[in-house]
Amino acid sequence: MAAAIRNGTATSVDLVSSCLETIKNHNKTVNAFCQLWEDEALAAAEAVDRARAQGKKLRPLEGVPTAVKDLMGMAGTRTERGSRLYERAVSGQDAPVVRRLRATGAIPLGKTTTSELGWTGSGWSPLTGATRTPWNPDLTSGGSSSGSGAAVAARMVPLALGSDAGGSVRIPAAFCGIFALKGHLGRIPHAPWSATESLSCVGPMSLSVSDSALAFDLLKGPDPADHLSLPAEATSYLEACSQPVDRLRVGFAETLFGVSVDPVVAQTVAAAVDGIAQALPVEVTRVEPDWPDMTDVFEIIWTVGRGHTNSDLAAARPDALDPGLARMISECERFSARDYLFALKSRADFSAKVEALFEEIDLLLLPTMPILPFAADEPGPPERMTGRLVDWANWTPFTHPFNLTMQPAASLPCGFTPEGLPVGLQIVGPRFGEADIFRLAAAIEHLMPWRDRLPPALFDNTSG
Fold first, then answer.
1. What is the CATH number for 110?
2. Which residues are the active-site residues?
3. Does residue 181 sit within a domain?
4. Which of 140, 79, 144 is nearest to 114 (CA)?
5. How confident is the model at residue 461 (pLDDT cuts 50, 70, 90)?
6. How many domains does the chain have?
7. Is residue 423 assigned to a domain?
């Protein structure tokens, strides 16, 4: 789109109008957008087209329609966070990632839905209801970047911002059949501060690998607002997408921690890995990491951080909250300072074990999710709910461990079930290893492309 605008084969007004039309036709079905800024977006697009006609230099994403997850502040717009308690709350400034997105010339069309305060991996919030995968609107999009994943999958926008503190870009990427990378902690600056800052990453979600690579190149780098943001690097992730993958040592884990994987997911992922091993010049070996299950540790860090910092919410209007969030907040004091320190030590020990594997391999492949999407109105698959405070961690056992280790990890479609649901393949890299992930992901996309397969919801005449 950016190239078409620059060379005059398309106008920004045409592209923005087309995206707005798709949103109008299908948002009622998938519930991806919770705010839409039609007039503002069209006015911005007209300004881009005038600038091009006048011969002005255009910025890298000038005139390209995008979307922003509704956890991210954007000056002068509502940031409601999927919560009734923040309904109609207006942000006074842009988050760093939003400021950088605007600086590229991209045009945000609106805000996308999120589970309440991004606390869970489901696609439901008490403010906006259920967000659904366009591959089967009876089923969840996954969360917490619910709307961003569904919007990209439904071709409402080519690029949307998401965030990930336990799998929140990779879960909807798997359930919605798109690409998303959780970069290394601090790769793209994240602010304002949150109590789970040592887990949380922000970044783009897209249809193609190269679109995300370009967006990362434009959005990454240090920012004074984020004390964990990483220094600038010379590496171009977009250039990495065109580099050969030969000599990459790739490990394949069918599961982790002894978790049972849905047979269809397991078969689809295994078939894809076999295809990768046969068609690409990489060395694929099966691995069975002997790592401890970190669900309890993740639960402590998540509950102490999110529970205590949001305790005022439960006191104010507990009945207005997602019931699971309200319970987590009300019971967060069950964990002591000793428990929290033990969890931090366990996290450090686990990170060392995981990083040791990457002395033997360059990248790790495994299923993104052990399950297929569940009913959109449910908090999770009933058979995997145990009643713990962070119950969603039970059914996302392959995503949150890599938030604990801070490593980059991506999800991309690797096939479809007989019912037509996408299945996600996760690629995990060593610390600071985003370039190799993009390199392999781009080669896989070329080998087994997914962009031309459209979700059934786009052909539903009752949509909208």
1. 3.90.1300.10
2. 69, 144, 168
3. yes
4. 144
5. low
6. 1
7. yes
